[in-house]
Design a protein that fits this description.
The structure holds three protein chains of three kinds.
Chain A lengths: L12 H15 L7 E2 L2 H8 L3 H14 L2 E4 L3 E4 L3 H26 L4 H13 L3
Chain B lengths: L1 H34 L7 H25 L3 H8 L2 H5 L5 H33 L6 H28 L5 H16 L10 H6 L18 H24 L3
Helix pairs in contact in B: 1-2, 1-5, 2-5, 2-6, 2-7, 5-6, 6-7, 6-9
Chain C lengths: L6 E10 L2 E11 L4 E5 L6 H9 L6 E6 L2 E2 L3 H7 L3 E4 L11 H9 L7 H11 L12 H13 L5 E5 L7 H16 L3 E5 L3 H7 L2 E6 L2 E7 H7 L1 E6 L14 E7 L2 E6 L3 H10 L4 E6 L2 H9 L3
Parallel strand pairs in C: 3-8, 3-9, 6-7, 7-8
Antiparallel strand pairs in C: 1-2, 1-4, 4-5, 9-10, 11-13, 11-14, 12-13
The chains are: A mainly alpha, B mainly alpha, C alpha/beta.
Amino acid sequence: MFFRLNSTNGQPLYLQLMQQIRHAAETGALQDGDQLPGIRTLAERLVVSPNTVAKAYSELEHEGLLELRHGSGAFLIISRRSRALTNRVQVARKKVEGLVEELRESGLLNEEIRRLFETALVLPA
Amino acid sequence: MLWYKAWLETRPRYVISLVGLVFLSSLLVFSKERQVDPRMVGGDYNLVLIEAHMALATLWVLAVTLLMMGGLVREHAAGSSSFTLALPVSRRRLMAARIGVGVMQGITLAVIPWCAMAAVASIFGRTFSIPQILFHILVLLSGGSAFFAMALLVSSLVEGEYTSPVVSFGIVFAVLIELGDAKLARFSPLIFMFGLDEHRDKRTHLLLGPIPWLQVAIWVSLALLLMWTAVKVIERRDF
Amino acid sequence: MSHAPVIQVHELKKSFGRVDAVCGLNMSVAPNRITAFLGLNGAGKSTTIKMLLGMIAPSSGEGTVLGRRLGDPAESVDMRKYVAYVSEQQHLYDYMTVEQMIRFTKSFHPGWHGEIEQKLLRTYELPLNRKVGALSKGMRRKLALLLAFARKPELLILDEPSDSLDPIGIEQLLESMVAQCSEGTSIFFSSHQIAEVERVADDVCVIHKGRLVMNGSLDDLRQSYRQIDLVFNAVPDEVEFRLPGVERISTQGHQMRIFASGNSEAVVERARAFYASSIDVAPIGLREIFLERVKEN
């Protein structure tokens, strides 16, 4: 499993890990039933606190994407619910990609686009 | 393994001191023996061993002062005190190890050279009775304990890797000079270590009984007081 | 596993003559986490750590480490059976060889893990028969770390652990820290290397002029601190933006830059109320958060 966490961009590491695991599930790098590395193994490999990995796994378990079997490790479940979630994410991704393409064509730079999204996310729902 | 550590720390100094003391005291006996008229009998002859004893006592004080350099304050100057103090042992135990090793070294630094001196003397057919030898060692060690404890206290008070032995040696010399005067001789631990003249037979120069237990007790008590003070100083210090 | 804080201090003070090194420190460090202890030079980090370990007696205040009280010599000795410490200087004993140092340290800790010792001897490439005095600074540091890690202590206190290590050494250090934490060790480390802290720390405590000025999880800090850049045709008074959570406001021409530790939504709303022509919200890295906290106010 190839993950890459950026510790200086201000985004919590566990969120980044969650995103990357979800991404792996969407692209098929991780398939239904696949086992993810143990918390300690992954923490050592990425050189991050095991609490970061534990939190990411735990949150994903809440979302239904992972199943944590005590003693055996973390397993990916492409359940119906998570499949639906994955589909929604895929649809949303296409929208975002389309929008980003538009914004680029209108002359905006990546950094500017990123800032706009950040700001929009901060706004109350 | 605290005793092992204290031993390793002082080993080079100890070995040099032991070799030095054995060599010098044996040499002194040997050369004086050669000078002595073989027809001389009794008293004047014993002076050889007694003079050697006095030299040994003086060198012993210097050696022990050198050996007691060390401890936590010196480690603090050298940088390893934070490791030692992080060990799960009390400061008292650390001191006990240093004192224990120092006491054993002090005793052997008196006994072994004396054995060497006696061996050299016996080559020439001269012997000192065992009680006499033990008497001399006893006064050496009991008077010497005060110097030992003083050096321990100084090493616990004075900062700086090399300042501490300088201060200790300074005190030793002060004692030698100030209390060398005949009137104050009674108060000098070094003179006591030599074996006071008042305890010696005028003719044979040998030490006469009874053993001056009271004075032995006084010097040893003084030493214990200084050692206790040193332990308290270390216990209260911030490192 | 226990949930009691591994370190807890209350109004801890230490004065050296007229200098107050630590002036009323209140701090609580959670178990099974990696906590970073940040502060400028002279802020009181080393003094605090030494008080925790019983090397310095507090002037006043109280605290516990693994439940044992500070200032009680017997409890302190007991505590040190379960707490390993690697200091900034870490000189160790020049006259002992690497092998003797290991044997010496091992003798105090019945729970020594030989397999960790062997693994680290290989990883760090430490020569068993060389005297410590003949080792390079980096090798000495690695030996000191080995002696702490092989104990698998309940709590590991590290003072500038990456000092004198090259980049490979630093990677090895962080991996070992993470591995120890995975096995249940709580880690409390002081560091100047913000980049390393950002990689492995769960929680951050910032000490400034002898007092705690920030204490929280790194995730929380990352999620709440924001830098908000605003552009106005007519710049409003800064007073309008002194909302809760706003730490610093600077205005230049048409621009206003706001540094907020939280509540950025309210700031953005206010900006819109004043018809800001541009609103930019960006996250802030730990370095800037730290510097902001410790700059002269």
